[in-house]
Specification:
The chain has about 210 residues and is mostly beta strands. The protein has a single domain, classed as Beta Barrel (Porin). About 15% of the residues lie in helices and about 55% in strands. It is built from two helices and eight strands; from the N terminus they run H-E-E-E-E-E-H-E-E-E. An eight-stranded antiparallel barrel has the order 1-2-3-4-5-6-7-8. Strand 1 and strand 2 form a beta hairpin. It starts with a helix and ends with a strand.
Length: about 210
């Protein structure tokens, strides 16, 4: 979270300096929740973190948004079924693993301004980092009961974000964002997910928007 706060400050001051000539900038900071469903060896997870985004509007309604979200570190108990691709044992292989998750995306945003509410829609793409897969691989190798899963899984994958929400303006320069709900498609295709190369996740965010 310390890295995220430093990034927020850096983006805030950069946007303020840039917006002196082009007052079309929005900086949003807030809470971010990410739900990932059960996938192969990996159980479903709920992540709580923070996000910061910078959007520049080329016109009244159309802009380009860049976003970074950090969900910190987490631990899980992963149960690999006995006598399967990942567990060469008569009993299930229970692994205590750890990982950290963050995303970085960029894409167009469509924004509408009404007196009391300002809805928006967004489509972004970029990358997601989650090293829980490689930690499963390493624990399997060390434990000896798990079959070597052929190669170290990737920690980073492509992600696609589609969704939107709305802002409630407090003033010309500050608004409250009560909800931003997105579908997040990720592409962790590796042996630990047993052939399923894509994951369908859900994300919800809320925060404060500063306008320059």
């Amino acid at each position: 979270m310390k890295k995220l706060l430093l990034l927020v400050l850096a983006v805030f001051f950069a946007a303020a300096a840039f917006a002196q000539d082009a007052p079309k900038v929005q900086v949003a900071v807030g809470y971010s929740y990410l739900y990932t469903p059960h996938d192969g060896f990996v159980p479903s997870s709920s992540f709580n973190g923070g996000d910061v985004s910078l959007a520049y509007f080329f016109s009244k309604h159309f802009g380009l948004k860049a976003e970074f979200a950090d969900y910190g570190s987490y631990g899980q108990t992963v149960t690999v079924p006995a006598n399967t691709q990942g567990c060469n044992s008569q009993a299930n292989c229970a692994l205590s693993v750890h990982g950290n998750v963050f995303t970085y995306t960029v894409g167009p945003v469509l924004h509408f301004k009404f007196k009391r509410v300002q809805p928006f829609a967004e489509v972004m793409f970029g990358g997601i980092h989650n090293n829980i897969y490689s930690d499963i691989f390493n624990h399997c190798t060390v434990q000896g009961e798990c079959i070597n899963l052929s190669k170290l899984p990737n920690n980073t994958a492509f992600d696609l974000v589609i969704g939107g929400g709305f802002d409630i303006p407090f003033s010309e320069h500050i608004a409250f964002r009560p909800v931003d709900v997105d579908y997040v498609r990720t592409g962790f295709g590796n042996p630990t997910v047993i052939g399923n190369s894509t994951q369908n996740n859900l994300r919800a965010q809320a925060g404060i928007v500063f306008k320059f």
